[in-house]
């Protein structure tokens, strides 16, 4: 980009690499510089492509993008949006900016995505989307139900009272003789219906 757009010599581009790389990439650059010394920009470009533009790197980058669901409780709209744009641009250099924006908005959740699209009618710049996203997440509650904090899933600390288990069925019982070995209809003792005491009233 620097060479094509600004006609910067290779020496200047190579000298700026230490400020362009960050984190693990900067450590890689210092290690390569220590092992191989100074080289031209075409040499560094070849090393960069060999290091990152491979199947393993693409797989890792695609997974990172797919897992990057916007979390309103944790993510900042500007840094989150730009990071996803960098990932898509690195994976698909020929993808249009409109398609990049659409794919990023799908990671925001239904309500938040709809609210941003309602405010930003294409063609819109990346800055327009970021400004709308920051305004919506700051001034409204839209999108806050998309992510549920693990804290909300915890109990209040009160002991859980388990319901009493129902007692077992009472044992069957013969109501004629009181035995529990059989029922009324199979009782060996016959009902004595004739044993009725008649009390004669004496006058």
Features:
Znf_CCHC_sf, nucleic acid binding, 203 residues, zinc, mainly alpha, zinc ion binding, 50% helix, zinc-finger
Task: Explain this structure.
- Among the domains are: 1-33, no CATH class; 60-139.
- It is 50% helix and 0% strand.
- The protein is built from nine helices and no strands.
- The radius of gyration is 39 Å and the shape is elongated.
- The chain starts with a helix and ends in a 64-residue tail after the last helix.
Helix percent band: 40-55%
Q: Describe the main β-sheet briefly.
A: none
Structural class: mainly alpha
- Average pLDDT score: 79
Can you describe this structure in just a few lines?
The chain is 50% helix and 0% strand. By secondary structure, the protein is mainly alpha-helical.
Tell me the layout of helices and strands.
Blueprint (H helix, E strand, L loop, with lengths): L1 H5 L3 H11 L2 H14 L4 H12 L2 H12 L10 H15 L5 H9 L4 H10 L6 H14 L64
Helix pairs in contact: 5-6, 6-9, 8-9
């Amino acid at each position: 980009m620097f060479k094509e757009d600004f006609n910067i010599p290779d020496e200047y581009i190579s000298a700026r690499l230490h400020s362009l790389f960050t984190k693990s990439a900067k450590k890689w650059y210092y290690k390569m510089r220590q092992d191989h010394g100074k080289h031209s920009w075409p040499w560094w470009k070849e090393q960069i492509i060999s290091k990152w533009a491979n199947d393993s790197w693409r797989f890792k980058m695609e997974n990172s993008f797919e897992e990057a669901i916007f979390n309103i409780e944790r993510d900042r709209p500007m840094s989150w949006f730009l990071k996803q744009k960098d990932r898509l641009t690195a994976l698909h250099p020929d993808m249009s900016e409109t398609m990049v924006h659409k794919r990023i908005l799908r990671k925001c959740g239904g309500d938040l995505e709809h609210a941003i699209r309602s405010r930003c009618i294409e063609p819109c710049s990346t800055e327009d989307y970021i400004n709308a996203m920051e305004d919506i997440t700051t001034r409204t509650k839209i999108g806050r139900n998309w992510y549920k904090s693990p804290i909300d899933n915890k109990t209040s600390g009160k002991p859980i009272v388990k319901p009493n288990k129902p007692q077992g069925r009472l044992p069957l019982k013969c109501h004629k003789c009181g035995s529990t070995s059989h029922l009324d209809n199979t009782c060996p003792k016959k009902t004595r219906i004739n044993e009725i005491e008649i009390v004669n009233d004496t006058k």
